[in-house]
Design goal:
Helix content of chain A: 55-70%
Largest interface: A-B, 55 and 55 residues
Shape of chain A: elongated
Distance between the termini of chain A: 43 Å
Oligomer: homodimer
Largest sheet of chain A: none
Chain lengths: 219, 219
DNA sequence: CATCTAATGGTAGCTACTATCACTTCATAT
DNA sequence: ATATGAAGTGATAGTAGCTACCATTAGATG
């Protein structure tokens, strides 16, 4: 997400006609992509821990210094993605008649079912890595916190409540928590139909008020 | 929690009479406590990032090697706690008439309201650190995953369901997610009455099926 | 008391990451 | 077209977390 913002920023006040996508910008984007690509390949080939930043830099034909200019940490190569803006847009586009949870479900589906197989493959591997490597799992926590905040604000906007209210925080927390608990089985991957099915089922259960035997909700 | 297990294990098959709490074990416990204590003090005085392991080791009068023998990572000094067994016991002790959420609420209250002011203070600072320092926030992720698993198993045991079922996972995920979202305001700390109040409110909201306007649960 | 085991300290080394600086490459204005 | 400025790069050196190894010491056991 930071990546996206960076890549799209334009160095000077453009010419609306020819939007100054300057050679510089393009080269930067290419370098970033190259580093990420080589990194992921090496991770796949020899494992995350075994792949040093130096090796990645060498493979991408840049210096280690440059690597760290593009990615503040080694983890960031795997962690960072560009889906937030898409998900936000998709959520905002949902018709007001559907429930919040349903709107969310549709947004996720809309974004991720629009991916070509290659990207799906890449995403799947990315998530597998994140589940598998402890350092990356840890780094995801920040990601989830951010998701809760994002979701609270988005839902607040939709239903017209204060995003700081305990109710909204609880709602967002519960939702993200459910995803967290269900989205990954032991071995990563959310994007196949099985994954969607599991998520749908869990969300429905949540929307029904988590009716466990012996839990007897408010009734 | 690992700590507790380690500290309480007895090296040899005891003598029930004199339980071989041997001088060795006691010294180990003291060393561990000392390291942790000095570390926390230094963190408070000069900040987490500014306090090197070397400094901690020096303050506790051990070698850096020894530090890492007691705590696998620097983060672990802050992250690890000993409450899991207490919470488990408290939860198991709850009468079967109360709802799962209520049982949980009572367990948490029981454990944390039994703390003396000094421990409360320490806990509060611990959590503040964990919220504040990015590395520690990240490390907590693993903690939350573990909590979900633990909770799923505990509840499964109580209501007699498969802990791997999506319903139970969702339930545990939602609960932990709610805690995650609500327990900390911007600056840590869960253990005062305000914290309990917020948690209670959010849990009640969850138990009621998260009735947001425009959310219209299953009805 | 002798012996065996566990805890310790010290050394050396790897890797992620930072800071700094000189150099080169691209962008812009005259 | 060229000079001037800015931005991207690489090299060097250094810090800190962490590991592996080995020799030494301190405590437990028979």
């Amino acid at each position: 997400m930071k990546s996206l913002a960076e890549d799209h920023q334009q160095s000077t006040v453009g010419d609306p006609g020819r939007p100054t996508v300057g050679l510089r910008e393009r080269k930067k984007a290419r370098t970033r992509a190259s580093i990420r690509q080589h990194a992921m390949r090496l991770f796949r080939e020899q494992g995350y821990g075994e792949t040093t930043v130096e090796k990645i830099a060498e493979a991408a034909e840049v210096s280690p210094s440059t690597f760290f200019r593009y990615f503040p940490t080694k983890e960031d190569v795997v962690i960072s993605d560009d889906y937030d803006p898409l998900l936000i847009a998709a959520f905002r586009a949902q018709p007001p008649e559907v429930s919040v949870v349903e709107a969310l479900r549709r947004s996720v589906r809309a974004v991720f079912s629009g991916l070509d197989p290659e990207n799906i493959e890449r995403e799947a591997y990315r998530h597998q890595l994140m589940e598998t490597v402890p350092e990356l799992r840890a780094a995801m926590y920040t990601e989830y916190r951010r998701s809760i905040d994002l979701l609270a604000n988005l839902v607040a906007e939709r239903v017209g409540l204060d995003p700081e209210s305990p109710e909204l925080r609880a709602f967002a927390g519960a939702l993200v928590g459910v995803m967290l608990a269900v989205a990954y089985t032991s071995e990563g991957m959310v994007l196949d139909e099985g994954g969607f099915g599991r998520i749908d089922r869990a969300l429905a259960f949540l929307e029904a008020g988590l009716p466990l035997p012996g839990s007897r909700p408010s009734a």
